[in-house]
Amino acid sequence: MTTSVVSSGDPPHPASPPPTKPSPQSIPPYMKAISGSLGGLVEACCLQPIDVIKTRLQLDRSGAYRGIIHCGSTISTAEGVPALWKGLTPFATHLTLKYTLRWAPTPSSSPRSRIPAPAIYPTPGGSPLGSAPACLRRSPSSPLLRSYVTSTSQVVKIRLQQQKGLSPELLKYKGPIHCAHTIIREEGFLGLWAGAAPTVMRNGTNQAAMFTAKNAFDILLWKKNEGDGQVLLPWQSMISGFLAGTAGPICTGPFDVVKTRLMAQNRSAGEVKYRGMFHAIRTIFAEEGLLALWKGLLPRLMRIPPGQAIMWAVADQVIGLYERRHLHSARL
């Protein structure tokens, strides 16, 4: 019988390591920016009438509108149905820029980043939501930067929305470009940044709450983690986005009312009624009562959660398409 002899000089073959599960890959920042901006564009086109109604209610100090339905019917009867889409161009610009800046510079999505990803996903023996600082770090961009970049489009939007009527010869502002030019000429360049302080306060709170809640609902409801290749169905994204967008309007109502009042007042007309964020809060409370600081809350609740549902439904489909075509095809 012949036996095989292994030479003692031959190195032993190392045991092959067990196959490892591929780790989730991150989505590039530019794809997050594209998906968010497309979602914002669709959101603006669908929900602009509710935003017009919200602005009119927040600026109504005489009680001309008795609610959402009365406000909407009054606008459509007196000014025509197209008046419900006033300020669509700056509103779409605002949402597109906002979601682009909000989504793009996520630390965990950048291959150059040395910052560890926040503990927002389930860990062994840990909470699926992670710690509070980690949840806040999940907010991808600075509310201060985003607020100042998008503030100009909001000022133009509100100035256009507060005008009654559609006849160009009777309107002070003929369109978005003419409105911006008129504000600069009459009030100075800084007039385009009126209401920036309450905008920062509102956006910072909304951003931290929305991203934390959206990721939490994706994990708790659908077991979906970022980069795992699972693509949520549109109705699943809409449910997560709707729930994530509900809490913000209640917490930030006073900031939104003050923002609208400061952006709508014309500083070229002499003495202004509101001299700043805190003065506006005190004046509204003294003259109109505490509940006036939450004017327009119902249309905000009607716009923001459905808006988040629409935006996330579009954005998740774009991200899912990218994951299927690029990330997972690269692993094969």
UniProtKB/TrEMBL annotation:
Solcar repeats lie at residues 27-112, 130-220, 235-321. It is a multi-pass membrane protein. Its main location: mitochondrion. Residues 11-27 have a biased composition (Pro residues). Gene3D superfamilies: Mitochondrial carrier domain. One of its GO terms (cellular component) is mitochondrial membrane. The keyword 4Fe-4S does not apply. InterPro entries: MCP_dom_sf, MCP_transmembrane, TXTP-like. One of its GO terms (molecular function) is succinate:fumarate antiporter activity. The keyword Iron-sulfur does not apply. Residues 1-28 are annotated as: Disordered. It is found in: Mitochondrion membrane. Coiled coil: none annotated. Transmembrane segments: none annotated. Pfam families: Mito_carr. SUPFAM superfamilies: Mitochondrial carrier (SSF103506). Keywords: Membrane, Mitochondrion, Repeat, Transmembrane, Transmembrane helix, Transport. Belongs to the mitochondrial carrier (TC 2.A.29) family. This is Mitochondrial succinate-fumarate transporter 1. It comes from Acorus calamus (Sweet flag). The lineage of its organism: Eukaryota, Viridiplantae, Streptophyta, Embryophyta, Tracheophyta. The gene is SFC1.
